[in-house]
Structure formats: C-alpha cells, structure tokens
Amino acid sequence: MINLEVPKKFTTLVDQARQAAVAFLRPNSRKYDQAEHTYPKELDTLAALLDGLSASGGGAGTGGVRRSSAKRKKGEVVNSSNMSLALGTMEMCWGDAGLLLSMPRQGLGNAAIASVADESQLARYKGKWAAMAITEPDTGSDSGAIRTTAVRDGDFYVLNGEKIFVTSGERADCVVVWATLDRSKGKAAIKSFVVDRDTPGFELVRLEHKLGIRASDTAHFRLDNVRVPAENLLGSPEILPDKGFAGVMQTFDNTRPLVAAMAVGIAKAALEETRRLLSEADIEIDYDRPANSQPAAAAAFLEMEADYESAYLLTLQAAWMADNGKPNSLQASYAKAKAGRSATSITLRCVELCGSIGYAENDLLEKWSRDAKIMDIFEGTQQIQQLIIARRLLGKTSAELK
Amino acid sequence: MVGVSTSEGLGAQPHKRTAVGAAMSVLNRLAGAPLLARLGIKKPVDRVVYGATKAGFTLANRTFRATGSQSKPQRLPSAGDSGVFDLNPTEDQQLIVETVREFAAEQLRPAAAVADDKCSAPPELLSTAAELGVTLVGVPESLGGVATDRSTMTNVLVASALAEGDLGLALACLAPAAVSNALVLWGDEEQQATYLPAFVGDDVPAAALAIQEPRAVFDPFSLRTKAYRTSGGFVLDGVKSLVPRAAAGELFVVAADLEGRGPALFLVESSTKGVSAEAEPAMGLRAAGTGRLVLSQVSVPSTALLGDSSSYAECVRLARLGWCALAVGTGQAVLSYVTGYVNDRVAFGEPVSHRQGVAFKVADIGTELDGMRLVTWRAASRAALGLPFAREVALARKLCTDKGMTIGSDGVQLLGGHGFVKEHPVERWYRDLRAVGLMEGAVLV
User: Fold this and answer.
1) pLDDT tens digit string along B4-22?
2) Do A286 and A357 fall into the same domain?
3) Residues of B in contact with A83 (CB under 8 A)
4) Is A386's CB within 8 Å of B356's CB?
5) B302: which of A148, A354, B107, B314 is 20 to 30 A away, CA to CA?
6) What was the pLDDT predicted at B28?
7) Using CA atoms, how far apart are residues A183 and A84, in angstroms rounded to an integer?
C-alpha cells in the first residue's frame, strides 16, 4: 500500500539525531567553520553517545549501508537500515554537514567496507574510522582511469601513487585506497585496499582550504611503496572483465542516497531559517492561495520547498529500494542529482531572500550555501549522475554515451 | 423497521461490484488487447461495444430524482495506515492501473489527435472509460460503486494512467468523476440519493466541477461568481471558465462566493433556467471540449448547497492534486516518446542520444518526473490516510507546474522541427501541460 510517511518506529531515532544536532552540531557550527583543520573535540563525546544509541538499535551509523541481507518474507515490505540511516543523516546535516562528515568512525571508507568487505574484514575493521581515497590530481570523475598502482609482492600489495580530496584523511584510522592491479586491463583491474594511516610510505602531503564543509578535513596523500597485507584487499582479487569495477562502484549505490540525504538536511536547515526570517518580515507562506497571488518571496519559498520535497522523497525512495533488495542505481542517481542541485540553488536563494542577514556570518545561511555546493560534486558530480541516468533511460553503454 | 426487512433477501440489493470486478468486466470488452493475451483470458472480440450503442450525452434534460432511502450520507473511511513506508500499489490498484493504462495506450492515444482537432471526445471512448470504472473507484460499495476506503490514491493512479494516453481525453473521461467524488465526500443523504445512482449506472452523465473564472491571477478563494440567499434557496450569478464538456454537461458543481460565508459549492443542473454554455476552446485540453458556463441569475433550491465551510478548501486541494496526477502521466508519455526518438534519430553519423546535450535533457526529464510522481503520491496517500495534506498538495502543484512545463518544452525541443509539427504528439503535450499550473477544479481525486 502506497504510503510515503516515515514509519513510527523511526520516530525515536529521528528525534535523537535531531537532539544531537541541536545540542552538539549547531552550537559548534560556526566555530569549526572558522577554525578550519582544528579537530572538533566535541565530536568524541557525541560519537560515544551515538555508538551507545547504535548498539541499542538507534543511532545514525554509516555501518548500516551494507546491502540488506536480512531474511524477508516473500512480498513483505520493510523499512530498515538504509532508510533509518538516510533519516538520521538528514537530521545531522540539518545540524552541520561538515561536522557530520568529521564524525569518528562514520567515514565513507566505512561505507565502502560495509558494502563490499567479507565477514572477516568486517570483523577486523569494526570500530575503525575509515576514510576513502579515489580521486587523484589527474583523475576526478573518470575514476576508471586512476593511476595509483598495486603490485603483488608475496603476502603484500605494494601501492604507489597520489590521492587527493580524502575526507577525514588526517583523522581516520585507515583509508580505503583505490588502485589498479594492471593499468592495461582498465576498470576491471581497479581494487580497493584498506591502508592503515601509520603504514610507512603513506605520507600526508597537506590539508585543503575549502569553500565549505570546513570542519571536515580534506587530505592529500602520497603513497610511496606502501606495503599493504594482501588480506586488506576488499572483495575479490581476481580481474574479472565483466564485473570487476562494478564491485567497487556498488559502494556508490549505497553512499549516493546518503549524500543526497546530507543535501536534503542542509536545504531543510536553510528553508526553516528563511521561513523564520520571512515571518519576521511579515511574509507568511499560504499553502492554499495560488503562489502567484502571494508576495514574490513567498512564491519563491513555495518553489524551493517543492524542490526540497522532491529531493527528500527521491532520497527515501532510493533507501527504501536498498532496504527491500531492489536494484536502485538509477534511483540513487535520481536522488543525488536532484538533491545536489536543489540544495545548492535553495541555499543560495535563501541567502538572497534574507538579504544582509543571509549574507553575513552572524547567521548560518551563508555557511549552508557554501557547504551545499560540495553535495553536487562529491560521490559523483551532477554531470556524472546525469550520465548514469541518461545511460539507463536510453539503454546506452559508456562507450556510446560518453 | 420497514426499511430493514425490505433491504434484505435475493434481489433486494443490486450486486456489489468490487474494484477487481469492474476492471475484469472491462477486460471482457477489450478483447484482442495484448493484456488479455498476457492474462490468458479468452473472449471473442466484440467491436460493437465501441460503436454508438450508448445513448451518450444527449440527455441534457435528464431528471435527477432521489431513489432509495438512506438515513445518512455514506462516507468512505480513511485507508488503514500500514505504518510502513511503501511505494508498492495494492494488488487491486495494480490491476486497475494496468487495465486503464492499456485502455489509454490503445484507445486514447490513437484518438487523441483527431479529438484535439475536433475539440471533442468520441462518445464511445467516454462510455468505455465509464465502464472501466473511473467514477466507480471513488464511490462506496453501499452506493453502487467499488470503493471500500478513501480512494484518493487510486484516483491519482487512474488519472496518471489515463493521461499517459492523452491529457485532453483523460480530462474528458474524468470530468464526471469529479462530481461523483465531490458527492461522496460532501453530499448529504438526499444529494447522494438524488445524483449518485446515475454515476454508477450504465449511462454516466456528463458532469463537471466548475471553479475556474476568466481573469488574470485567478484565486479560487476569491470568487467573482456570487451566490445570494433567497427565501427558497440561492441565486447564482457569474461566469465559469474552461469547464470540461461544458456544452454536454447535465450536472455541474459550481464554486460561488456565498454572501456571509465565503466560497462554497453548489449543485446546478444544466436544465435550470439561466444556465448556458459557450464554447471556449483553448491552446490545449481541446479533446475535453472546454467551455464557459454562464450563470445568469440562476435560482437553485437550498438543497443545492454542497458541503460545509471546510469542504471548499479540501475541494480546491483535491482538484489541484488531480492536475498533478495528470501532469505525471503526461510527463511519462513525453519521456517514453522522446527516449525512442532520440535513439532513432541520427545526426552527424550517430544517434543524437549519444550527445550529452541531448542525453542530459532526457536525464533531467526522468529525474524531475520521478520527483513529481513521489510528491504527488505523498499528498494522495496522506489524503487517503486522513492526514492533513494542504502543504503536500501545494508543493506537488508547484513542482508539477514548473517541471511539468519544462518537460513539455524539452520534449518538443528534443524533437527539433519534428517536435513542432503535428505529425508527433509532443506539441500537443506542450500545449496540454501549460494547463497544469493555472487550472482550478475540473478534476477531483
């Protein structure tokens, strides 16, 4: 039966995430936006708190993105970890996206491990904070063209190369590094390796200064003959031409709805604050009167809220499909594309509507509009999502539609 | 006590039709359709049913008379809340939608261009739609329909499926259901007994919900059509615009500003003195035969007032939701059509779909359309569940207005010059989709 309401069983979780956002993230939001590269120590307390909640079945842990393998009765529809995680992420990013990205043990590397690791690897990295290293100085969206190499040497792989834009790279315990076993064999040879931060040769070059999500550290690494135990390779070590790359890309089906959820959270924060400020300016939103009969700012708000609602529901759809074992590549990209571009345009327009209050640092609106932009870039840019969607809808291969 | 003893026993009550039953009876008639082959149902082809076997809509002076006796109005209860976020329609809904979609693809789409040109829908199509159950799905079993609970979600699915065939014809098919749905939602026992039997019978009357008025920045909460109280009832005066099948209409639900109360709904029979219709063809929705309904000092009895003071806003919302459903269906038609076209069309030595400038437009249509569908569904499911839905309808309307029109425009653009000519349906969808943001009333889900 069609029902697009959040199930009651997630009420507590959403409420807890909101409380955490109110108590820990919002009060520190501006502080770590200004003190870029300073570790937000308040997050240790929050992380411990959330771990406790996770253990009791609540909480917003990235560990939940593993493709649902839980036994479901045939025909039964469930709302499970992908949805609860998306909902928790929205609330936390309503608090602060940069701080959420800095949450200990909640890195994108954790999502990758959860998605593709075998059981023993899962056990080995339990409780570790894992960052994700894909991008290279000369390889961005074309992750199939990465140049970092991994060469087998006995029980080890030896990694060489350079990685940039590694979120939480400095703070994490380990980094999931994408490298190729054989550049001549293309995407199928690309594997991901868990590299402990203290491995010799794994050198932090610098931290980036950024437009937004400044609370989150973004690292640049050089890998100089980094020796990684062979069992740290995630997934199968074989080069299977037909499905190799699909394995690592599978991570994205699970993480894209999460980035969409982050974008939705930021957009929600900006809309709530804008509505409050508009109300102070005697502009009320009327859901019954035609938008064109209302003040232009109210009409603009309705337009933004409509885009927000679309992004929100596309995100929940992708999570719902993952929870119910339905392939959701297309819908994950729908969610990411819509949420990424909507969050950016909504937050920027909120700044415009709120004038100097929106633009100045006394309020968080300007910060949200800087934070939002990354949501349309990382985990696959807007244009990459459009490519994925177009190929699916048109039935085209990546060779035909480049 | 007399009522109880006479309402039991063989033949005392008409057989109840269920949603599945209604769909199956249409399957019977749509012999030869691929769906039948898929379901393995064998039935001889009987094309006569598409001939002019129905009396059609010539009975402009039908007399509506209360039949049967009800002690209180029949309302549909809210759908039970499953408590689970779920995007799967029920089995009944799936069967109904599949049947309606088949009808839309095989009957509406081929007839759309001619109907658009002639500004009218073929009567046999309208009667087939009635047999499909587009009015029945919103009427309670106790009143001869097939609904067991609030049908907003099902109505939305049906409207989208019809519009995937053609929006103008979908509007023509759905116009009577707007009136029957309004009667189910807000009619008192006498109004229901007087009018609803006709809507669940073999000869569903042409009927329409008339809210729109001919003026810029029209606001349905600020009406120029006025209703004045008289000793015996009300006098209505004003002009309604873009009323579907206005010339053939036998019964209208008219929005008018009631002095001392604000906007309200009135049941107006077309045979009432002072009621006249004028053709008002527009850039789109032409198959629906849109017209102006002119009300010149029309006297209606006090029983003509439909609903209480809270009904009107709900009516406006459910009508807007209907337009969202129509936009979703039309958007789906655009997406399917342009996908095929840009894959077939070759330029510079390869399909134009191999170019990002083309492919990304298709991607955006797909993305925005899926969002439109979900936002519309959420509003509909909230209405069916008995939850407040004003916000959700407003957002669905805004989204479907803006993105729906963009989809219509991009649809034409992707076909280039071919999109501009009537050889392809995209120019019609472009014209039809412009209606979504401006129309008030006409449909009701």
Assistant:
1) 566 777 877 777 767 777 6
2) yes
3) 85
4) yes
5) B314
6) 62
7) 39
